[in-house]
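Journal club prep — side note

Before the paper discussion, L.F. wants everyone to see what a predicted structure for a comparable chain looks like in token form. Sequence:
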Amino acid sequence: ELPDRPISQDLNLVTASGLEALANAMAESRAAYNSAQQIEDAGERRRAVAVASREMRYYADRLTTAQVVPRPAEFSAVAFGHQVMFKRDDGRRRSFRIVGEDEADPRNGSISFVSPVARALIGKAKGDVVLVADHEIEILSIE
């Protein structure tokens, strides 16, 4: 469950699948690092090791700070992990799942909890209308 204070971008909230994706990315980074160690050309090896090391540090930090938020059991108000369908003032309908920053992929139907749309929707109920970047959006469903 989200804290009672305003949502901070310092929080590293993730879904269970987001945590799994971070762990997989860490394993891939570690494998890339190990492969980079085997490169014969010293310059290319240094470059490849540097890239893999940077990725490993990033994923290690994200895994260490990850706070798994369980699937919501309540659907009366939008929360982290919910799938929300809404209608824009131009009539277009959109549906997004609200997830952690590392797992957000708007093209595939997920947005970060710190995005302007998610921030406007969190805490609102079906039928509520919110303003996002000079556009009204009406919440049609929460799953």
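L.F.'s comment for the group: Residues 83-142 form a domain with the Chitinase A; domain 3 fold (CATH 3.10.50.30). Keep this in mind when we get to the figures.
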